Amino acid sequence: METINSIGIDKKTAPILDVLDQLIKAQEKGDLKTFSSCFAQDENTVNIGTDLDEIWYNWGSFYDWMQSAIHNRSDYSITSKDTRIQLSKSEDVAWYSQLLDTCLETKGEPFSIEGFRHTGVLEKRNGQWLIVQSHISIPFNAKSINE
User: Fold this and answer.
1) Rounded-to-integer distance, Cα 140 and Cα 52, Å
2) What CATH number is attached to the domain comprising 74?
3) pLDDT per residue over 85-129, tens digit each?
4) Which of 92, 99, 120, 140 could make an S-S bridge to 124, C-beta 3.0–4.6 Å?
């Protein structure tokens, strides 16, 4: 996992960047426990993936999907770039955007996509930053080494 060119990171936003970095490291390792600890685990958590049917309006349904998705990865790496974090005036809500480059193995072949867009919102609950909404999208002109 590599983080490149984080923007707007200071003493107040550094803990939020730590959550985002933990999330990526957990995905790379297939660590569902750490991955889950980055999210608010309630009925209001929203996660949107890249496919039309990948939208989950509560933690339970997203977790059920992630159980198989995160364990079925091999040789997976993610680089985050241009991470931007903003805090609300009350400093208990934050929103972020970042670009992700991924490299993984699928069907025995290396596969890489550059420029995933990852955005979301975190809330500070009981002193801990938790993701309450996230969205991953692939730009129309994303680059793949398999093209």
Assistant:
1) 15
2) 3.10.450.50
3) 999 999 999 999 999 998 866 566 777 888 889 999 999 999 999
4) 92
